[in-house]
């Protein structure tokens, strides 16, 4: 992980650039979550700590210093310290809660206590657990044995100084106590112990506050603290990385991002990684409606009973009994319904009803044979639910009419005067209800399709601001737009042209690319609408701009490598199919965007609706340059099958596919072999 690139991102976050903050999360969250998991274990507590830590990072980014009194502070060291301190706070809070839940010592005798409490792990067991990740060469070699063991116990188990001493079976007294009990803060060994305890988090209470005051006053103390933070930063990097739930970033973003913006690490899970609304307007509404409707259609039993599904499938018996009562002009006044096997009936007023001056309105069921029976009173507004003495199936299966009468008796035995306002209604007419239902559903479906078509580009492209230095930016004029290009000039024939993802600030790659490829001139294209480029992004515009940039670069560089990541892989394949590129590198490539969308939402005619299809499979057979496809083992956005299908479309011997183990869509660029694979091609 390039420290300079991370420093630049922290500086951007300190200026309020949430895109830089999202990039920090993308590059570091698996490592930092691994630190939290190592202390708290996998689960909600570790995810809560990770969330709180990143909120703190966002708020305190301006406080990061790359150097303290001549001692270099690596950005990852600073980030790890924040996570670890919060994890230890949570660990101790949990321990205090557990302690408070134990019975008082007077309530449990010693024998019972020994039989119910699990034995404490030995010092050797704790040390074995704590040192499984202590394999970084030289990280701990400078420490003597007892100090090394106490460091491991404190760092990984979160033990206090006294707890470490108890587990080690020997006192770990701090040297340098004066006869009168005072501390000689000039003693180098004492300062070393205090600095390590402070960074480890085991220095607590008044001692910690005194040391913090000492740290503010003395540069040598600050240097020792910085040295220990650097050592422990190295140590933490050996902790296995863990992938937190996607909801962690969603919660962090909700607490940190400015109102009206949406920033996320590149490539959210599912096709929603491509459908990122550029605000909370109609585009966001359309995406929500699409997702909700798709879920309704995919899993109808969550919203409809088996009787309702039976009615949709055309069974002769309806799922409910429905009666529509109208006035003399045919205007609807009351809608009466009851599920076929239910014992409740709903009466809803759908047209104005004048309340009677005296008496009450009563609803009657009139069977084909036999006397009418009351179904209860009728509301004059709103709706009312009444209980039935039996199921609707038994009560209403032979009822063909409903009438409303005006009654003055409390419990009339038979219908009186039929209210002229309301005429009789025929029940058991599911066909009309079904027709209305499907008409409404069809109209909603067509409205969703229309919204998807109109707002699709605001759901595919998620423009990002540019975080790089203005000195590294040049402006390139094309026919109808001015494009921003982040560049690093270099003499010689070699150049690299880079096309990024749909939510990527490509300028963030410049530090790592500059270090990895010192002999290449670098050209990183900001799509239209991204990073200071004018215009709006479309597939046709991206293809045209990419060709123009390649043609411009190839005038001064004979050896041009084209790189495309995620969405940009479709742009890169297009360029390679149209121009004689020297090499083609595709990171997390897909067969086609249309295919990804259709797989996620098979209920919509994506092939008709989608304009920007990015069909890489069409252009792959035309590519003659040596090609490398880099895939993430656990890519949750672009399935491995899609990348594999694209690989198969290249001519035999042209393309190679490499899978980076243990990576996801967001973390592929963090793998140590990521840039090494680039270098193997170059």
UniProtKB/TrEMBL annotation:
GO terms for cellular component: plasma membrane. The chain crosses the membrane at residues 278-303, 433-455. One of its GO terms (biological process) is DNA-templated transcription initiation. Residues 102-114 have a biased composition (Acidic residues). Keywords: Membrane, Transmembrane, Transmembrane helix. Residues 96-119 are annotated as: Disordered. The keyword Membrane applies. Residues 508-604 form the AB hydrolase-1 domain. Pfam families: Abhydrolase_1, RskA_C, Sigma70_r2. Residues 24-97 form the RNA polymerase sigma-70 region domain. GO terms for molecular function: DNA-binding transcription factor activity. Residues 287-413 form the Anti-sigma K factor RskA C-terminal domain. PANTHER family: ALPHA/BETA HYDROLASE DOMAIN-CONTAINING PROTEIN, PROTEIN ABHD13. NCBIfam families: sigma70-ECF. This is Uncharacterized protein.
